[in-house]
């Protein structure tokens, strides 16, 4: 007998999942304590579903059935249940069978599998989620194939199997469909799993952002406090659905003009979203009421959770358990709220008062409420609107990954802006960000580089430079400050991507043009000579010059610089109109404006900003006078415009400093180049000489009996393992005496190198522990004597002899497994460049041919590889191949947790690996390859 408290109970199989409709369920092993739940579940299943399961009428479960379906050994017989609250909504089980189809034990590697899903929950993806999890359990227990018998009329279940992406066989036998599924994950099964994950998680966020009804729990009668503020913002923001206020002490029918109730259960209509603003100790009661009422999601504004210490963190974990037990999702706790500016929704379930954000094309996610306030204010001041906003607070459930899933398919969002303090699951984040960045820009400002002691958000183990490199590889635009986040977002939301790095500069100030020119060079752009229109330039002069620059095939972007007129007689609104008309006449290239102390000019760039759609109600909280606009931007471009001049629907971002405008243009140019380069997926090459099976066998032997230890391989074992992947390490021979050194040199052939391998001297040629080009026995003996006299005894120095290799550039190639990000491939030059200056580039594994080529070109010292100052270029194709082979090794064998090849001498033809250090260990579970799960709590 097994219960959830027994040591044999596999608690690691428990998982929360998001279903197809955005709701959640918990999957867990079935125990002997579930007999009553199983009977109740079966009673709610239709006779047709029972017939499909048992191939005959089976109206009720016998005692023998109940015993069989609740007693498992979790090896040969396993049952899993999908639950909401305490109720089963679906079950799956497998029974290991032998070649004759009868019950068996290991080493039999086939099992019969069967499902049953409550009719009310069919169509929600319950069976697909159960199949993923029971498949992972089976692989863990040594089962490689599932067999299933399905009635031909049971099309839904046949589709569950056929759509899973596994290799399968199908036959028709004795009136039923016989299916055999190979459980080894395939590219297709992984793609299916991730597509389902994306649809489910996007739908779960959509339910939070587009509710048909909202209840605010914790609205004070006095009109003060967080709950009352949230209610007012929902009401004044023009929420298009039904709105309710909940206060247990309410004595009137209305609070702030909104229908009020003493308890959520008194609301005689569905409630999709609940905003909770009550003390933390009372939140569980409110969550229970929401769950019982069928609420789909919660925004918990209440504080007193993970940010307040260990007790608060425990309270937060319990909150997540409770929320998920009802199939709900949670934003928060300690959240600032959510906003959706879609005219058919009009949701401002946040603490942002009027004026609320206007409609726009930017999606904004923050982990910090304070940063959220800052970003919202900055966008509002500069006339930019939002599609959606989420400030997730402690992000105990919904995270930036979920929001990326939503934005990926959200047609209302063209640009994703994110302020993150941690990446949570970096492996998943970079995967989602790469996919999203392929269709729309993702801009990230990451705080928490140096996490202070006691801060609630834990820092990552990855160095910040590595994080930046991995984000760049995924196409993410990484910025340093929230100001840059807004600057870059404004440009991307209003302008096309530049086709290259060539920038035209024009304006009425020679000095400002020169500053802009210098800033372009610093950002790696290729600016043309600034065109000085002089301070006497008229709006017409600007219009003609901008039109000519946009029409030139020599330019990819234009930056316009403007200073005040001396006579101040030129109307500044005429200049704004002239620039808009020129940009509208020649669209297709980005334009940015740099202005100096021209508030009136910026205001005149357009009337109110935003992205109104035809027929949309005016924003009820806008207070701008007609003709006025917030400082810092020209008006957004509506979808269609039938009135005004040629430039009335053009948006041009304006910046008060040249450096800020140039940084935005440069980031857009780099992102555009990434988009073009990644239009076609890179390829992971196949090398015929790789012996993957032999490497696996060697690693299994090395790790036998190692337990949890990390082993550093001997030089011989490391060389043998690398050789199986076509990586040859130049042999070294030990030289404990001078005579041994001479014998080694004779075996290797002169000239040779004499090196110390003591840990404190390894790779430290500057300390004199290396002697090169020893062409004779006399040279070798003399060098041996010098080393031992200067640095220590042979027993301390551990000298070795190695053949000389062709001269070249010394480099370092590394791979390390980060627990969060996965395998990371690194490259740099040996010595000061990488060790002191940190000039190292990184890529995620598996690396493609494009990744390898970009990796060696990403370091600042890369010119040394390509013929700097007249030197001969080295064999970079050979270096790229080495990187790709190492990437394949660590990707194929996660037991290889660390590799350092140092130095790798890259010559004009070929390269030589002079030393290799390899560390191996039993690998942790790869959560990104397993079944879909929500983060555990």
What report would you give on this structure?
The longest helix has 23 residues, at 187-209. Helix 11 packs parallel to helix 12 (426-437), helix 22 (738-748) crosses helix 23 and helix 26 packs across helix 27. Helix content is 34%, strand content 22%. The chain is an alpha/beta fold and 937 residues long. The strands form 6 sheets. The chain has an 8-stranded mixed β-sheet, sandwiched between helices. A 7-stranded mixed β-sheet has the order 11-12-10-9-13-14-15, sandwiched between helices. A 7-stranded mixed β-sheet has the order 17-16-19-18-20-21-22, sandwiched between helices. The protein contains 27 helices and 39 strands. Strand 26, helix 17 and strand 27 (591-595) form a beta-alpha-beta unit. It is flat, with a radius of gyration of 33 Å.
How would you concisely characterize the structure shown here?
The protein has about 950 residues and is of the alpha/beta class.
Main sheet strand line-up: 1-2-3-4-5-6-8-7
Shape estimate:
flat
Structural class: alpha/beta
Q: What is the terminal-to-terminal distance? A: 28 Å
Beta-strand percent range? 15-25%
Count of DSSP strands: 39
Key terms:
seven-stranded mixed sheet, 27 helices, 937 residues, single chain, alpha/beta, flat, 34% helix
What's the topology here?
Blueprint lengths: L14 E4 L5 E6 L5 H9 L3 H8 L8 H8 L6 E8 L2 E11 L12 E8 L8 H15 L4 E6 L4 H8 L5 E6 L2 E7 L4 H23 L3 E5 L7 H12 L5 E5 L7 E2 L2 E4 L11 E4 L6 H11 L3 E4 L9 H16 L3 E3 L5 E4 L6 E4 L8 E8 L2 H13 L4 E6 L8 H10 L5 E6 L5 H12 L4 E5 L17 H10 L3 E3 L2 H13 L7 E6 L2 H13 L3 E2 L3 E2 L6 H13 L5 E6 L9 H14 L5 E5 L3 H6 L49 E2 L2 H20 L14 H12 L7 E2 L2 H9 L8 E3 L3 H11 L3 E5 L13 E5 L2 H15 L2 H4 L1 E5 L5 E10 L3 E8 L2 H4 L4 E5 L4 H9 L18 H17 L3 E11 L4 E3 L2 E5 L17
Parallel strand pairs: 5-6, 9-10, 9-13, 10-12, 13-14, 14-15, 18-19, 18-20, 20-21, 21-22, 23-24, 23-25, 23-26, 26-27, 27-28
Antiparallel strand pairs: 1-2, 2-3, 3-4, 4-5, 6-8, 7-8, 11-12, 16-17, 16-19, 29-39, 30-33, 31-32, 31-33, 34-35, 34-37, 35-36, 37-38, 37-39
């Amino acid at each position: 007998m097994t219960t959830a408290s027994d040591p044999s109970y596999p608690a690691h199989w428990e998982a929360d999942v998001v279903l197809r409709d955005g709701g959640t369920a918990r999957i867990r092993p079935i125990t002997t304590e579930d007999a009553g739940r199983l009977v109740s579940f079966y009673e709610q299943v239709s006779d047709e579903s029972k017939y499909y399961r048992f191939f005959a009428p089976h109206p009720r479960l016998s005692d023998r059935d109940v015993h069989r379906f609740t007693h498992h050994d979790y090896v040969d017989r396993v049952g899993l249940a999908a639950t909401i609250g305490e109720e089963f909504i679906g079950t799956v089980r497998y029974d290991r069978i032998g070649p004759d189809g009868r019950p068996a034990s290991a080493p039999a590697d086939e099992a019969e599998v069967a499902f049953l899903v409550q009719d009310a929950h069919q169509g929600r993806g319950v069976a697909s989620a159960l199949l993923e999890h029971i498949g992972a359990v089976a692989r863990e227990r040594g089962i490689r194939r599932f067999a299933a018998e399905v009635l031909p009329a049971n099309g839904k279940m046949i589709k569950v199997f056929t759509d899973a992406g596994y290799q399968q066989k199908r036959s028709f036998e004795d009136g039923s469909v016989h299916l055999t599924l190979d459980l080894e994950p395939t590219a297709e099964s992984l793609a299916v799993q991730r597509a389902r994950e994306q649809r489910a998680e996007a739908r779960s966020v959509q339910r939070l952002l587009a509710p048909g009804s909202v209840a605010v729990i914790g609205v004070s009668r006095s009109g003060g406090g967080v709950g009352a503020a949230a209610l007012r913002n929902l009401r004044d923001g023009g929420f298009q659905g039904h709105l309710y206020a909940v206060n247990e002490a309410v004595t009137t029918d209305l609070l702030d003009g909104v229908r009020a109730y003493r308890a959520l259960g008194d609301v005689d209509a569905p409630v999709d979203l609940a905003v909770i603003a009550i003390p933390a100790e009372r939140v569980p009661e409110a969550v229970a009421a929401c769950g019982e009422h069928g609420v789909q999601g919660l925004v918990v504004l209440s504080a007193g959770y993970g940010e307040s210490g260990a007790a608060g963190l425990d309270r937060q974990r319990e909150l997540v358990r409770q929320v998920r037990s009802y199939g709900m999702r949670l934003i928060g706790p300690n959240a600032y709220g959510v906003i959706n500016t879609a005219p058919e929704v009009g949701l401002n379930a946040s603490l942002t008062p009027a004026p609320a954000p206007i409609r726009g094309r930017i999606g904004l996610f923050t982990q910090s409420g304070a940063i959220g306030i800052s970003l919202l204010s900055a966008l509002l001041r500069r006339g930019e609107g939002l599609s959606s906003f989420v400030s997730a607070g402690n992000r105990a459930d919904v995270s930036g990954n979920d929001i990326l899933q939503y934005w990926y398919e959200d047609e209302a969002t063209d640009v994703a802006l994110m302020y993150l303090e941690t990446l949570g699951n970096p492996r998943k984040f970079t995967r989602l960000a790469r996919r999203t960045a392929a269709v729309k820009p993702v801009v990230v400002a990451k705080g928490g580089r140096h996490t202070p002691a006691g801060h609630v958000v834990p820092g990552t183990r990855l160095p910040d430079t590595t994080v930046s490199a991995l984000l760049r590889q995924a196409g993410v635009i990484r910025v340093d400050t929230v100001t840059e986040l807004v600057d870059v977002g404004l440009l991307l939301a209003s302008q096309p991507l530049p086709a290259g790095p060539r920038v035209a500069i024009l304006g009425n100030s020679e000095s400002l043009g020169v500053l802009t020119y210098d800033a372009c060079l610093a950002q790696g752009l290729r600016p043309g000579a600034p065109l000085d229109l002089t301070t006497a330039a008229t709006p017409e002069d600007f219009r003609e010059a901008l039109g000519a620059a946009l029409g030139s095939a020599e330019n990819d972007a234009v930056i316009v610089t403007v200073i005040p007129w001396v006579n101040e007689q030129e109307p500044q609104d005429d200049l704004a109109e002239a620039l808009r008309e020129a940009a509208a006449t020649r669209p297709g290239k980005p334009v940015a404006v740099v202005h100096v102390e021209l508030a009136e000019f910026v205001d005149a760039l357009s009337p109110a900003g935003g992205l109104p759609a035809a027929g949309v109600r005016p924003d009820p909280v806008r207070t701008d006078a007609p003709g006025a606009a917030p400082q810092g931007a020209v008006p957004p471009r509506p979808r269609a415009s039938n009135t005004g001049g040629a430039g009335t629907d053009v948006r041009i971002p304006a910046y008060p400093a040249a450096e800020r405008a140039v940084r935005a243009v440069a980031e857009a140019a780099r992102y555009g180049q990434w988009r073009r380069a990644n239009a076609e997926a890179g390829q992971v090459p196949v090398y015929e000489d790789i012996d993957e099976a032999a490497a696996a066998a060697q690693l299994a032997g090395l790790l036998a009996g190692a337990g949890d230890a990390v082993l550093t391989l001997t030089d011989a074992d490391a060389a043998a393992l690398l050789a199986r992947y076509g990586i040859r390490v130049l042999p070294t021979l030990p030289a404990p005496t001078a005579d041994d050194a001479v014998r080694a040199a004779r075996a290797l052939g002169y000239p040779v190198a004499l090196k110390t391998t003591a840990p404190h001297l390894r790779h430290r040629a500057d300390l004199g522990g290396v002697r090169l080009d020893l062409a004779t026995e006399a040279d070798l003996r003399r060098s041996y004597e010098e080393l031992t006299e200067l640095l220590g005894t042979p027993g301390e120095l551990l000298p070795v002899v190695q053949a000389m290799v062709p001269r070249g550039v010394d480099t370092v190639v590394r791979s390390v497994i980060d627990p969060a990000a996965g395998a990371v491939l690194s490259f740099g030059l040996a010595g000061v460049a990488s060790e002191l200056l940190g000039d190292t580039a990184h890529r995620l594994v598996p690396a493609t041919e494009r990744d390898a080529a970009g990796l060696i070109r990403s370091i600042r010292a890369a010119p040394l590889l390509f013929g700097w100052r007249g030197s001969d270029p080295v064999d970079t194709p050979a270096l790229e191949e080495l990187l790709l082979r190492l990437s394949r090794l660590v990707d194929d064998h996660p037991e290889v947790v660390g590799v350092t090849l140092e130095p790798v001498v890259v010559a004009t033809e070929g390269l030589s690996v002079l030393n290799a250090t390899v560390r191996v260990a039993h690998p942790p579970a790869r959560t990104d390859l397993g079944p879909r799960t929500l983060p555990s709590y």
